[in-house]
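User: Good morning. I'm curious how magnesium ion would be positioned relative to this chain. Could you predict the structure with it bound?
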Amino acid sequence: MQENQLTIALSKGRIFDETLPLLAAAGITPAENPEKSRKLIIGTNHENIRLVIVRASDVPTYVQYGAADFGIAGKDVLIEHGGDGLYQPLDLQIAKCRMMVAVPKGFDYAAASQPGCRLRVATKYPDIAAEHFAAKGVHVDIIKLYGSMELAPLVGLSDAIVDLVSTGGTLKANNLEAVEHICDISSRLVVNKAALKVKHTLIQPVIDAFAGAIAAEAV
Ligand code: ATP
Ligand code: MG
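Assistant: Good morning! Here's the predicted structure, ligand included:
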């Protein structure tokens, strides 16, 4: 571990866009836009701070093993990862959405989700889905998918899906409806526990700047 170097793991897309103002509050400006660049390691205006661009669901893994000192990951990804070796000091209040159960319009979910019933559920989030239905006493066959969950009930792969919903536009376009709210999701700052100790003087000011930016946003 290089004690005077900071490596930050970020994913492209909405998390990156919504993270830029937080980085700016901490005085960090990326040298390139990862959306346009093919580079996976991107420098910043600080010689000792760099960004690594990884898949959203890989952020906790890079931070857990110390390949990145800290990163930003959705709570959905963190629940599935388990959070081992990660300190989670801040809810960044970005990339907000809800984890929901959705079914085709007209499907009698109330009847199909009685205790003792059996339901086929397609999802990218098997742990979250399993825990949710276990708490309700509903038996589930979880079908793990990596994307386009909305398709599964339309072609008979599953009865229901567990997925992230923000506007509900995708559900509506596919004749599905959200029938149960599992939890609210937003992105969190995740810090490698060892790095927080060893690089405290580098990391703490970034945490404080992020916290300040969120507090200002909340006013
Ligand atoms: P990929 O699209 O490469 O398969 P991904 O779906 O995990 O990866 P994104 O779609 O960029 O990546 O989502 C990243 C994070 O943004 C998710 O982990 C979640 O926390 C949050 N997110 C996902 N969908 C929404 C949404 N509709 N609205 C707001 N935040 C969302
Ligand atoms: Mg996606």
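The longest strand covers residues 176-185. The pocket of adenosine-5'-triphosphate (ligand 1) is lined by residues 11, 13-15, 55-57, 74, 76-77, 95-97, 147, 164, 166, 185, 187 (CB under 6 Å).
Let me know if you'd like a different ligand tried.
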